[in-house]
C-alpha cells in the first residue's frame, strides 16, 4: 500500500509553491516529503498504465519535450519518450552521435541551441558529472537529469524507491544492500541519498577498490565482504561494473569478481528469505548477477523497475511543467 505523504512543514510552504523546484537535477535537492510526493504521483500513473489499453492523458499537449542524450541509453531514453508521449507532449530525441557535439560544439552552445527551439522541458544525459546542471542554468525551461557521469540519476532512484514501496510497503527500518561497483555508479549515489532520506538502512557493499571514500556521507554503511553486507538484507540491489568509467584495473578479472561479489542463489540465501532482487540494467549476466537470480519469478523485481520507470518519468514531467501550464498553486 502506498504511504500517504507526510504533511510538509509550514516552513516548507511559506511563500513558495508546493513543489519548489524548477529542475530535477539531484536527489540531494529533495526533502523526504518531496520524494514521497513524487512517488504518490507516480503511483497513480503506475495504476493507469496497467489498467487501460489507451494510455493517453494529454495534459502536456502542445508542449515540446527534447530528450538530449549525449551518452548511450536504452531504458531511460525509451521510458522518457513513452512517458512524454503518454502525456501528449511532442517528443523529440537528440542523439549525441548524430549531433553537432561530435563536431566540437561546446556544451553552452548546445544549451543555447536547445533553448532557441523553445522547448518546454528538456531531459539530458551526459557523461560528465555536473554537465546537466550547467545546461539547466542556461535554458528557460525545466531540465530533468537522466544521468550525469558518476554523479546522479535521480529518476532511477525514484523508480527504485517506488518499486520497493510497492513490494515492501514502506522504507522504515528496511535493510537495503547496494552491491557492486558503487564507486562509478550514479545509480548508487542517487539511491543511497534517496533511501536513507526515506528511512531505510542503506549498505554499500563493494570491494575496497570500488568503494567511494566517505560513503557514510551519502547515508550508507560500507561493507567490503559480500556475505556480511547481505546478512539480513530485505533488498539486494546489484550494480553493473561500469567499465567505461574505469581508468585502470579495479578488479582482477570478471570471473574472480563473480566468485567474490556475484549474486548467486547461494549468496542470495544469506539475505532475508523474501529479499527482493533489483538491478537498474543493463545487466551483465554471469558477472554481477547469475541468470537464476535475475530471472527468479518472485524475488526479482527487475522488469517491475522498468515498468515503474515510465510511471516515475510521467510524474516528474507532469510536476515540473505544472508552473508553465498555470496549474493552480504551482506558479
Ligand atoms: N543504466 C544505469 C545508468 O545509466 C546503470 C548502468 O549503466 O549500469 O547509470
From TrEMBL:
Q: What class of enzyme is it?
A: transferase
Gene Ontology CC annotations of this record: cytosol
Q: Which GO terms describe its molecular function?
A: amino acid binding; aspartate carbamoyltransferase activity
Where L-aspartate is bound, by residue? 103, 186, 240
Q: Which residues form the Aspartate/ornithine carbamoyltransferase carbamoyl-P binding domain?
A: 22-165
Q: Is Transferase among this UniProt entry's keywords?
A: yes
Reported function: Catalyzes the condensation of carbamoyl phosphate and aspartate to form carbamoyl aspartate and inorganic phosphate, the committed step in the de novo pyrimidine nucleotide biosynthesis pathway. Reversibly catalyzes the transfer of the carbamoyl group from carbamoyl phosphate (CP) to the N(epsilon) atom of ornithine (ORN) to produce L-citrulline.
Q: Indicate the quaternary assembly.
A: Heterododecamer (2C3:3R2) of six catalytic PyrB chains organized as two trimers (C3), and six regulatory PyrI chains organized as three dimers (R2).
Similarity comment text for this entry: Belongs to the aspartate/ornithine carbamoyltransferase superfamily. ATCase family.
* Protein's name in the database: Aspartate carbamoyltransferase
Cite the source lineage: Bacteria, Pseudomonadati, Pseudomonadota, Alphaproteobacteria, Sphingomonadales
Amino acid at each position: 500500500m502506498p504511504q500517504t505523504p507526510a504533511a510538509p512543514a509550514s516552513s516548507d510552504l511559506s511563500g513558495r509553491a508546493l513543489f519548489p523546484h524548477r529542475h530535477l537535477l539531484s536527489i540531494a535537492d529533495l526533502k523526504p516529503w518531496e520524494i514521497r510526493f513524487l512517488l504518490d504521483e507516480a503511483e497513480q500513473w503506475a495504476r493507469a498504465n496497467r489498467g487501460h489499453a489507451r494510455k493517453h492523458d494529454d495534459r502536456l499537449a502542445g508542449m515540446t519535450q527534447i530528450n538530449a542524450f549525449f551518452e548511450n541509453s536504452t531504458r531511460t531514453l525509451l521510458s522518457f519518450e513513452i512517458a512524454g508521449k503518454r502525456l501528449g507532449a511532442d517528443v523529440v530525441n537528440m542523439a549525441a552521435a548524430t549531433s553537432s557535439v561530435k563536431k566540437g560544439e561546446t556544451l553552452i552552445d548546445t544549451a543555447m541551441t536547445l533553448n532557441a527551439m523553445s522547448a518546454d522541458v528538456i531531459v539530458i544525459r551526459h557523461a560528465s558529472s555536473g554537465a546537466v546542471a550547467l545546461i539547466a542554468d542556461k535554458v528557460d525551461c525545466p531540465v530533468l537529469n537522466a544521468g550525469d557521469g558518476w554523479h546522479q540519476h535521480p529518476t532511477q532512484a525514484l523508480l527504485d524507491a517506488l518499486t520497493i514501496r510497492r513490494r515492501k510497503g514502506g522504507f522504515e527500518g528496511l535493510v537495503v544492500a547496494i552491491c557492486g561497483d558503487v564507486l562509478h555508479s550514479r545509480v548508487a549515489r542517487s539511491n543511497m541519498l534517496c533511501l536513507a532520506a526515506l528511512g531505510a538502512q542503506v549498505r554499500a557493499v563493494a570491494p575496497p577498490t570500488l568503494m567511494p571514500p566517505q560513503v557514510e556521507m551519502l547515508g550508507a554503511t560500507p561493507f567490503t565482504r559480500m556475505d556480511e553486507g547481505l546478512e539480513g538484507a530485505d533488498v539486494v540491489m546489484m550494480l553493473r561494473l561500469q567499465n567505461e568509467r574505469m581508468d585502470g584495473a579495479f578488479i582482477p578479472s570478471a570471473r574472480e569478481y563473480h566468485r567474490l561479489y556475484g549474486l548467486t542463489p547461494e549468496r542470495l540465501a544469506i539475505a532475508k528469505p523474501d529479499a527482493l532482487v533489483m538491478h537498474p540494467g543493463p545487466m551483465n549476466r554471469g558477472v554481477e548477477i547469475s541468470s537464476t537470480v535475475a530471472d527468479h519469478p518472485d524475488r526479482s523485481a527487475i522488469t517491475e523497475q522498468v515498468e515503474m520507470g515510465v510511471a516515475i518519468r510521467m510524474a516528474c514531467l507532469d510536476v515540473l511543467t505544472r508552473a508553465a501550464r498555470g496549474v493552480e498553486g504551482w506558479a
